[in-house]
Design a protein that fits this description.
The protein is of the alpha/beta class and 240 residues long. The chain is 47% helix and 17% strand. It is built from eleven helices and eight strands. It has a four-stranded parallel beta sheet with strand order 2-1-3-4, sandwiched between helices. A four-stranded parallel beta sheet has the order 6-5-7-8, with helices on both faces. Helix 1 links the parallel strand 1 and strand 2. Helix 6 crosses helix 10 and helix 8 packs parallel to helix 9. The protein is globular, with a radius of gyration of 17 Å. It starts with 6 loop residues before the first strand and ends with a helix.
Length: 240
């Protein structure tokens, strides 16, 4: 661990999907180490998201024992199903128990939106309407105006197979129904969207908030590192 001279992140991944971890490590500043663990979500249902909480807590305990400087709970839905205030209680409990900063996908995303002065947004997801309503309530409780939360029709296990062009079209189509929104929010770390973030921001003239960017932003902020990343959206280029 001595090589990780700028800090170590304990990263709890929601699924065994490849892609997101590799992108995270590739875009991290040099000197930040990562210890990844996975809870193994498979079906992507509300029931599974609720039941996996205890597994997340076990992984957090394991990472705290390894002496990490930050624990990131990945996957927005498993925390969002408990509501914004419910998630806050879970984080407070874990931080008190382990004395390590805890971040979650949802908290990082709301903080990033506030840092960019975003008040309203159009959300796009790869989940069904019942879960999209839960996500909408989470952000409404956090103080945001959710203009829409639109899901794309794809099986949970096949999200990684969506092309960049399909992702771009879905996000653009959803946003143009509510062009006065301040931003596009892309929920989930399953889709491979790095190729289209800059294009969407350029074409629609609003920031794009997505899981990888907010995670990288929050890690740098927590570890007191400031190394902008070009080409993947305003948040990482400006590091507000």
């Amino acid at each position: 661990m001595f090589e990780s001279w700028r800090g170590i992140v304990g990263d709890i991944k929601p699924t065994h999907r490849p892609g997101s971890l590799e992108e995270f490590i590739r875009l991290l500043p040099e000197g930040i180490g990562v210890i990844p663990l996975t809870v193994g979500i498979k079906s992507g249902t509300e029931q599974e998201f609720r039941e996996v909480l205890e597994e997340y807590k076990k992984k957090a305990s394991e990472l705290a024992g390894l002496g990490v400087d930050l624990i990131h709970i990945g996957g927005a839905p498993p925390m969002m199903v408990h509501g914004f205030k419910g998630e806050e209680g879970i984080v407070r409990e874990l931080e008190t128990k382990h004395q390590v900063p805890i971040s979650t996908s949802g908290r990082g995303q709301t903080e990033a939106m506030r840092a960019l002065s975003i008040r309203s947004f159009v959300g796009v997801t790869y989940f069904k309407n019942s879960l999209n309503q839960i996500f909408t309530r989470y952000f409404t409780e956090a103080g945001f105006n959710v203009a829409a939360m639109e899901g794309i029709q794809v099986p949970f296990k096949d999200v990684g197979k969506l092309s960049a062009e399909e992702i771009y079209s879905h996000a653009k189509r959803a946003f143009l129904k509510h062009p006065d929104a301040d931003a596009i929010y892309m929920l989930g770390s399953g889709w491979r969207l790095l190729k289209v973030v800059a294009l969407l921001e350029q074409d629609l003239e609003v920031p794009v908030i997505y899981a990888l960017a907010t995670k990288l932003w929050e890690v740098q902020k927590t570890l007191h590192v400031r190394q902008p990343v070009k080409g993947y959206g305003r948040l990482l280029e400006e590091l507000p």
